[in-house]
Amino acid sequence: xxxxxxxxxxxxxxxxxxxxxxxxxxxxxxxxxxxxxxxxxxxxxxxxxxxxxxxxxxxxxxxxxxxxxxxxxxxxxxxxxxxxxxxxxxxxxxxxxxxxxxxxxxxxxxxxxxxxxxxxxxxxxxxxxxxxxxxxxxxxxxxxxxxxxxxxxxxxxxxxxxxxxxxxxxxxxxxxxxxxxxxxxxxxxxxxxxxxxxxxxxxxxxxxxxxxxxxxxxxxxxxxxxxxxxxxxxxxxxxxxxxxxxxxxxxxxxxxxxxxxxxxxxxxxxxxxxxxxxxxxxxxxxxxxxxxxxxxxxxxxxxxxxxxxxxxxxxxxxxxxxxxxxxxxxxxxxxxxxxxxxxxxxxxxxxxxxxxxxxxxxxxxxxxxxxxxxxxxxxxxxxxxxxxxxxxxxxxxxxxxxxxxxxxxxxxxxxxxxxxxxxxxxxxxxxxxxxxxxxxxxxxxxxxxxxxxxxxxxxxxxxxxxxx
Length: 468
Ligand SMILES: *[C@@H]1O[C@H](CO)[C@@H](O)[C@H](O)[C@H]1NC(C)=O
Ligand SMILES: *[C@@H]1O[C@H](CO)[C@@H](O)[C@H](O)[C@H]1NC(C)=O
Ligand SMILES: *[C@@H]1O[C@H](CO)[C@@H](O)[C@H](O)[C@H]1NC(C)=O
Description:
It is globular and about 60 Å long. The chain has 2 domains: about 1-30; about 30-245 and about 290-468, Alpha/Beta hydrolase fold, catalytic domain (Rossmann fold, 3-Layer(aba) Sandwich), CATH 3.40.50.1820. The strands form 2 sheets. Strands 1, 2, 3, 6, 7, 8, 9, 10, 11, 12 and 13 form an 11-stranded mixed sheet that branches. The chain has a two-stranded antiparallel sheet with strand order 4-5. It is about 35% helix and about 15% strand. The protein is of the alpha/beta class and about 475 residues long. The longest helix has 23 residues, at about 1-25. The protein starts with a helix and ends with a helix. It binds 2-acetamido-2-deoxy-beta-D-glucopyranose (3 copies). One 2-acetamido-2-deoxy-beta-D-glucopyranose (NAG) binds near residues 61 and 67. Its EC number is 3.4.16.-. It comes from Quillaja saponaria. This is Carboxypeptidase. Keywords: Carboxypeptidase, Disulfide bond, Glycoprotein, Hydrolase, Protease, Secreted, Signal.
């Protein structure tokens, strides 16, 4: 009797809970297959042209105890996604959204017009040749959140890598057709830390699962652009670049080398900070992420920049329209856009920002994964002064890898696209005339680079490009 009443109560309770769940939170499901359907983007405000591919966005819980959820946006390849690799894109900062930069300004299928409302197609979108997954990482960035606010104060490279691995494993449960698919990681700037570190935890994870079974991730390689690598060589390269590009005085150049030597990029001493401020003043009002293109004029609120200009390694202004970032800020703050992207109103940031200040537990690890057999490419836009080509070259030089293909120019449409050198286990490519966000400034060259990377071929020489 008592038992019967009990089970009846449980049933009623279950019905109530179910009703409540379906009414109140109909965009969350514990069933990955159902969740995938819920994540499908059906309509995107400002998208007034046809697209031939599916896209999805939503959250993946990476830690149940704390309630950490990472937000993703996935654009399938526009043709035959089943035959194309899966590629994860990560922006830097630390603290900058991969949706704000990677998706909306760089490699994504659509960018945002100056009205902050309308989208236009990007003819050089990387989803022409791959399935692209944009991830806002770590928690606190973009639409990613944690229910434990102390998480956001303690973001560090290690936890970021672990959370991203959890993200991938759970995401693959939701999108099982991508399990075992060739997988690559790409990114820029501070992602020079995130990308190799995530690669490393994936390689370890695969070893732990004996590289087989449903849980292994078929990581084939990674590629980073204008990547923060190690502080010593990064600094050395920045100062040298600023001086040789004629942007700072001899005196400042000497003092920078003296006072900022060996210091972490994101946490520097006050003496180093002071001389960095002086260098900043000497630069004048240029866009340090792209020294030859116009800066976005005045009224951009400088205070919204997460760090001092010299230290902000994830964010940029651009070439033809130097103010794209403002357009993104407008667009992604539109409630109807957030709704279309399945952003949970209870966890949406009060104001969505392209970058936010992150307390970063700085870690200087840039592990070599060459021995794991990954394809590793480092590229560099050669007009960036924040992580310049000199820094990348010093960092590569420090690895002391034997050269396998000598330095040479590479071509696109008969013009020099940049320079390249092959090393045992690593390929260097520069992109001529590109700033920090290479695909923003040189979208066609960036797509050519991405194509060569995925194919594992060297970049076109002059003869090859003349018939195409
Ligand atoms: C965060 O907390 C809310 C309210 O308890 C809950 O609905 C949500 O699922 C939690 N998020 C995560 C990622 O656990
Ligand atoms: C939040 O995280 C911190 C640090 O991990 C932990 O000490 C604290 O207990 C957590 N708070 C809650 C409410 O879970
Ligand atoms: C700059 O922005 C402020 C606040 O948004 C505004 O009041 C001011 O008129 C703007 N100035 C210019 C020159 O556009």
